Amino acid sequence: MQRRKLGRTGLEVSVLGYGAGAVGGLFTKGAAQDQERAVARAIEAGINYFDTAARYGDGESERNLGRVLKALKADVVVGTKFRLTAADRADVAGLVTRSTEESLKRMGRDHVDLLQLHNPLTAADGGDSLDVEIALNEVVPALEKLRKQGKTRFIGFSGVGEPAALLKAVDSKLFDTVQVVYNALNPSAGGPMPKGAPGLDYGRLLDRAQAAGMGTIVIRALAGGALAGTMDRHPLAQQQVPPIGSAPDFAGDVARARELEPLVKEGVAGSLTELGERFVISHPSVSTMLVGYSTLQHLEEAIAAVNKGPLPAAAVQRIAG
């Protein structure tokens, strides 16, 4: 499987990563033997970046991923995330340290490769949304302290929230990586916002991140599963998936995904999900793409898709509109 540079980190990561979150659900609600089988297959296929977070299944994802990687004696790149609540604003540095220690304990590790802020970034602080100035002036110093202690090699943030705040965080060059919302339903992180498209305009965030020397980790590559073109959800998967940066609701995203079916019928890709995955990796500023899995079959399909490589340029242009 192709590997790409993760910005200035010096790491090379597989173009397809392993998302161990709740949307796919295998690592929050799946059977232990299925989890181990999936990770073993992922590593065999060349996947070397594994993503988790403290909030996925209230720590279950971290516990399960840590157990499986230890059992397999896997030498891979691991990233996790922490999130601040409103009560944590009084002691940001303390929360970052405590959350990291708890994550490492759950995973059975003494460090991770990448530690990331998970809150949406905004101009005004409140609830789950974090003022970008707090991120830059309080979270980053706390992360740098943990880096010096050897608890993490690199630091990053999840690129959700208000585009202006995200771009400010990228342009600060204080972080090593950013998770970027980029998919065939909202390609604005990689180019112009399609005329009349719903959702947030991410202002070519991918290119801005690359210019800042940052690695880019694409999230919502399949728009939370909408790019499968169906409302059906696997029993392990998150049953209600709020849109991020796209249509007002999941049904709207599914309807828009179905508008891409002519490309499948023309033979550009074997399925809508393949089309969506290959669209993402077609952008040269993408370091890696996270996909969440409910089954081993989902994983096999994603591996087969990325191994076909990027889409033809003409198809990318049609999708990006």
Alpha-carbon distance between the termini?
29 Å
- Main sheet: strands, sense, barrel: 8 strands, parallel, barrel
Helix content: 25-40%
Strand content: 15-25%
Mean pLDDT, to the nearest integer, reads 96
> What is Rg?
18 Å
The best one-word shape is globular
List SSEs in N-to-C order.
EEEHHEHEHEEEHEHEHEHHHEHH
- Category from helices, strands and their pairing: alpha/beta
Number of strands: 12
Unreliable spans: none
- Give the strand order of the largest sheet, numbering strands 1, 2, ... along the chain: 3-4-5-6-9-10-11-12
Q: Count the DSSP helices.
A: 12
What is the compact description of this entry?
The chain has 321 residues and is α/β, with parallel strands linked by helices.
Detailed description of the structure:
- The structure is a single chain.
- The chain has 321 residues and is of the alpha/beta class.
- Helix content is 39%, strand content 16%.
- It is built from twelve helices and twelve strands.
- It has helices at residues 26-29, 32-45, 60-72, 92-107, 132-148, 163-171, 205-211, 250-258, 261-265, 272-281, 296-307, 313-320, and strands spanning 3-5, 12-14, 16-19, 49-51, 77-82, 112-117, 121-122, 130-131, 152-159, 177-181, 215-219, 288-292.
- An eight-stranded parallel beta barrel has the order 3-4-5-6-9-10-11-12, surrounded by six helices. It has a two-stranded antiparallel ribbon with strand order 1-2. It has a two-stranded parallel ribbon with strand order 7-8.
- A hairpin with a 6-residue loop joins strand 1 and strand 2.
- Helix 2 runs parallel beside helix 11 (296-307), helix 4 (92-107) crosses helix 5 and helix 10 crosses helix 11.
- The radius of gyration is 18 Å and the shape is globular.
